[in-house]
Amino acid sequence: MRHTISVLVExxxxxxxxxxxxxxxxxxxxESLSVGETIDPAISIMTIVTTGDDLVVEQITKQLNxxxxxxxxxxxxxxxxxxxEMVLIKVAPRKDDKTEVLQLTEIxxxxxxxxxxxxxxxxxxxxxxxxxxxxxxxxxxxxKEFVRTGKVAIAREGLKKAKQTREAS
Amino acid sequence: MKKSGAEILIECLKKEGVKHIFGYPGGxxxxxxxxxxxxxxxxxxxxxxxxxxxxxxxxxxxxxGKVGVAIVTSGPGATNTVTGIATASxxxxxxxxxxxxxxxxxxxNDAFQEADIVGITRPCTKHNxxxxxxxxxxxxxxxxxxxxxxxxxxxxxxxxxxDITAGSTEFVWPDEVKIRSYNPTxxxxxxxxxxxxxxxxxxxxxVIMAGGGVILSGAAKELKELAELAxxxxxxxLMGLGGFPGTNKLSMxxxxxxxxxxxxxxVQNADLLIGIGVRFDDRVTGRTEAFxxxxxxxxxxxxxxxxxxxxxxxLPVVGDVKNVLRDIIKATKELKEQQWGAIRNAWLKQIEKWxxxxxxxxxxxxxxxxxxxxxxxxxxxxKGEAIICTEVGQNQMWAAQFYKYDYPRRWLSSGGLGTMGxxxxxxxxxxxxxxxKIVFDIAGDGSIQMNxxxxxTAVINKLPVKxxxxxxxxxxxxxxxxxxxFKERYSHTHLESGNPDFVKVAEAYGxxxxxxxxxxxVEPIIKESLKIKNRPVFLDFIVxxxxxxxxxxxxxxxxxxxxxxxxxxxxxxxxxxxx
Lengths: 169, 579
Ligand SMILES: Cc1ncc(C[n+]2csc(CCOP(=O)(O)OP(=O)(O)O)c2C)c(N)n1
Ligand SMILES: [Mg+2]
Fold this sequence. Notes:
Chain A is of the alpha+beta class. Helix content of chain A is 27%, strand content 37%. In chain A, the strands form 2 sheets. In chain A, strands 5, 6, 7, 8 and 9 form a 5-stranded antiparallel β-sheet that branches. A 4-stranded antiparallel β-sheet of chain A has the order 2-3-1-4, covered by helices on one side. The radius of gyration of chain A is 19 Å and the shape is elongated. In chain B, strand 2 (20-23), helix 2 (30-38) and strand 3 (43-46) form a beta-alpha-beta unit. The radius of gyration of chain B is 25 Å and the shape is globular. The termini of chain B are far apart. The A-B interface holds A 9-10, 13-14, 17-18, 21, 25, 55, 58-59, 62-63, 65-66, 68-71, 166, 168-169 and B 118-119, 122-123, 126-127, 130, 132, 147, 179-183, 185, 189, 192, 303-305, 307-309, 316-319. The structure holds thiamine diphosphate and magnesium ion (MG).
């Protein structure tokens, strides 16, 4: 099963390697990892997408909680939430494909954030399904470069099934 | 008034009540060593290797229950500590290690004697720090001691760049530590505790499996009270020895790969297994799918990650073992109607039968010293009151099997990492922590050579540590596996021809060396060693090299698939008949 886990951490030197080291040291898998500051600059938030059976994910959340610099761990599996990811795609369409690329971008509510003599850079934001669909459609036009941010997630208001993993199992 | 970083460091140690530290100097820690030159309250013991310093601090911690402390220099000094730190980490031992580091401005430049020790020790410390501002030093030390000694204890490293110990600031000792992201659960959940009591009351064939957590939490008294109250037989992991009195009628000794027949059999037949401060290591469980097949498993541990890591758990109770046991005892006492004697009678009788069926034994021989005999004699002569440290291998297993530990903190052995070379420096630490106790290191001829240089430390400090070398001329435990599973192909396990004369080695360092080659010499040299109060003693016991540790559960087998000595003899006969 794939889980999206958010980890609130002290914004201290080395904390990223503590978290990533935990995954590599124990053979857990990281599909994506994104890190950013929170409103409180002393705290960062990491969003990790990982896969594993229930026992493995239980260990992952417990082990994360055990790290001294980790303040809170939330496994979104249990929680109604919104997930988003952003990709930047540089495409080099042939002249007569340009309109179609622009149309596709519009349909997916993407934006052209840069254009050059032969390329467009498209920004697409959305959930995984939307992004993957867009990538499939745009591929035939010739993707030159491609980056994605990794997922971030946030709980919907009021609908938390409130499972804070720090509590005793 | 401003103080230097080095002065602040020593002030912090005093505030933490530290009197003895272990260490080894070098360029970037000279400021600290300079302060120690005049220091009266904090005494540094110079080991002969940084690994020795860490094991000594670890032994000091295990024997005393206090935090062990070591100071080493950067680069090679720091990297030499890694085995010691990993040893402490695997066994959850509270130590704080200070490593020197190159000046802050040079970090990352591959400066002379620079090593990224914070990076290297990240996976084998509970936590580690790099101090980047002398103003943070006191706070960091305070946090380090707090983290090392609370919750599930463990080693903490503080890396100190040279400019930090050379720099200066006001010394402010923080009144309290509060780390918002670190809040161990000390009290067990009420609901879980009630469930636990119900399970104990309903079980017909319960077994307690006690581990190192009992000792770390100081819960030996509570464990005994619960076991005796609810009449539950107790087995211990290697780390749990001494957590419950080995001579108590309810004790079944150690379980697992070299556990007793009755402990392993009881676990496999139990209907309730109560794991207390254990992590269900593979040396204990054997093949996990076949482990305790009829039992509901209850697990009490302060560390949630220990629960459901290796085996299924029906009732987890997260909390400090001592507190949880107290709560369980209290609620158990309220079950006034419960007829413990009646419901446990059959089970306890069954265990007695298993004990009679296959006691822990060995074949005494009057011509050659059996290593088990040596351990037995040490037990007799010291009346079970000594602190026993061990190395790793057969010596460790025999020391676990044939000495009975009635008290916690008298058994110091590298359980999790299995570090050869641990026992001797640990014994030095233990002897310093407990100057009035008899301290033995039960050693192998291989292991003792891994930190034999610490003879100098023991001699200089007049520490009467006794090292009983079960000298079989082999890396015995590995040889045993080669004999049993690799067709007696003794690849690189023969030591005898390269072994030094251990008596002469001891004497060369100014220690005492004694040797026994016949069974009748064993007791006299043990007694003689006890008379020596101001120097370490090496006791070189030339033992039967063929002796193997039994019972034995082959790796990957279920823990009731034990091999016994007699069976192996039968097999041998069969083989001979075929030939
Ligand atoms: C540092 C280290 N290296 C290797 C091993 C693997 N090992 C486990 S037991 C053993 C043999 C120990 O020999 P000795 O100290 O003579 O003890 P004996 O088994 O003969 O009693 C070895 C090599 C280890 N545990 N630790
Ligand atoms: Mg040996």
